[in-house]
Amino acid sequence: MGNTLNVNLPKISQKIYQEWTAKTRLVKSCSNEFEGEFDLTNLEIDIPVFGHLSIHKTSIKERDVKPAPVEFKKGSTIRVIIDKGRYNHWGETKLNELMDKLDAEDSETRRRLVQDWALDAEEELGIAVAKLPTRRHINAYSLLGNKAVDKTNILLLFDILKAKAKAAHMNYQEFDFFASEKIGTIARDAQLEFKANPAKAAFGDGYVGRVNGIDLMELEIDALVKRNADTALVEAEYAIWKTRDGIQYVVPFKTTVSYELDLSEVLLGGTGYQTVEYYDFFNIYPERLYVVDIKYDANASLPTFTGANPTANVINKDNLKAVFGTVK
Amino acid sequence: MATEKTPIEKELEDDDNKFLASLEELDENTSDNEAGEADEAAKKEEEEQRRKNKDAEEARKRREAEAKKAKTDDTPDTPDEEKGMDPREQVRELVKKYPDLDLRELDEDVDFQEYSKGKWVAGGKSITEIYEDYVSFRARISKEEEEVVKQRYAKKSGPSLKGSSGGTGGTQKSDDIFTMEEMESLSKRMPYMNPKEYQSISRKYEKSIQYHKNKKQ
Fold first, then answer.
1. Chain A touched by B181 (CB under 8 Å)
2. CA A223, CA A142: separation in Å to the nearest integer?
3. Where are the alpha helices (H) located in A104-230, listed in sequence order?
């Protein structure tokens, strides 16, 4: 006869995953699909690659309509290497007590974990995007003629974003614009009309509205903004212009595992528990993800993530990698 | 209908026999007496004998009254049986009403034992009423459906678990619940599930955990 405690363990990990992703804005906006089973030995998984359907053409005069192979919208899959993990040790050595703490509907322990993981994941992903090479940046400051974004040129900024997508033969309506609260303030100052997109509004927190055909999402990643030393208002930021599949954020393995505790760690030793997630994020379509460098004060400088300590302005992130995963 | 005599009844019969024998003896003595001293002595003897007989008669009556009282106190079941309160009859009635009920499971349940303590008495509630009250009490306390509580005492191979036609007993269908074996296999697969896959089973899985947990308690 099995044990209900043991079958409850992986369920709790799934629950934690669902709860922390729901609290995010950037991570939640990414594609999270993967196929097959995670290869724990080689740390590999297949993620889908969505390609265009082929258009078969022929000359009507020659009446040469040949049967073509059946095509599915999903073109193929690509194998990626999962290289990141997050985990939490639990201070309980008895499984039933741990379960009581984690499984309850209003579990404070789980709430704290979910909050921490959501913040951490948002920040890590945001920084990884900001650190993309220069060719992936849309430098709004220079494109606007070395001018800060204000109510007089905000429409021009939106036009530039749309034009970049069109130039890459893509539909700009697939894109979302993630920026700090400042951009919304300027858009309101410019008396631009905000329209609602019910699908996006239902999508969750952070949706500001559709301005000039662009869906605006408010990000709360402080590492991506530079604030005024006195007023703390945003002076410069890295905004993100992306489609859903611009980033593929996958968590192909999540569970709670037990392990032996050493006598030196806990009196008399025992069993410890750990909630683990293996994850990574990828940018399979470079033209569907851009970083937008914006200055609201011409003299302000953008945050930096280079040098001896690339995550200097990230709190409690000793070993944060903040880089995109690799394709095999 | 011939019934075996109790010790008190036997004692009373002996007393009666002795009394009759003494009366006969007295008659014989009276006829044999002639006159003088003999008459006086005989008179005294007769008086003495009458007094003895009177005492014996009183004692007999007292014992008879006591025996009657004792018999009344010893037999309270008889009128209750007439009212249909025979425990066996009550259990039969309970099983008839709840064919899926596993009496052994119910009998071994510590909570039920505690709840029913002092309640199943002559003239009180029937076992069916006690069981029904207990189910509703437990459902109220544990915030579960009454049917879920009833399932805890259902026979393991009963018709309700096979989930076919919705009989009078339980209403839980096997389609709604994973078996423990299925749960174990799913729990091994679960860490690898993608969000959609997990979403498709999550409700049923949670429900099954609750069901198996309750069943064990």
1. yes
2. 22
3. 108-130, 140-143, 154-167, 181-189, 198-203
Residue A54 touches chain B, beta carbons under 8 Å: no
**Which residues of chain A lie closer than 8 angstroms to B216, CB-CB?**
4
B32-59: pLDDT as tens digits: 555 566 677 778 888 888 888 888 888 8
Which chain A residues contact residue B193 at CB under 8 A?
14
pLDDT digits (tens, 9 = 90+) for A184-231: 999 999 998 888 877 777 666 788 999 999 999 999 998 899 999 999
pLDDT digits (tens, 9 = 90+) for A41-91: 999 999 988 765 566 676 777 666 666 665 555 567 889 999 899 998 887
Cα gap A288→A124, rounded to integer Å: 19
- A251, A17 Cβ separation under 8 angstroms: yes
Best B156, B179, B194 residue to mutate vs chain A (most A CBs within 10 Å): B194
Helices vs strands, H then E, count in chain A: 7, 14
Closest CA to A22 of A169, A187, A203: A203
Residue A207 · residue A215 · CB < 8 Å: yes
For B194, which of A6, A13, A33 is closest by C-beta distance?
A: A33
Torsion of CA A101, A103, A107, A112, to 10 degrees: 80
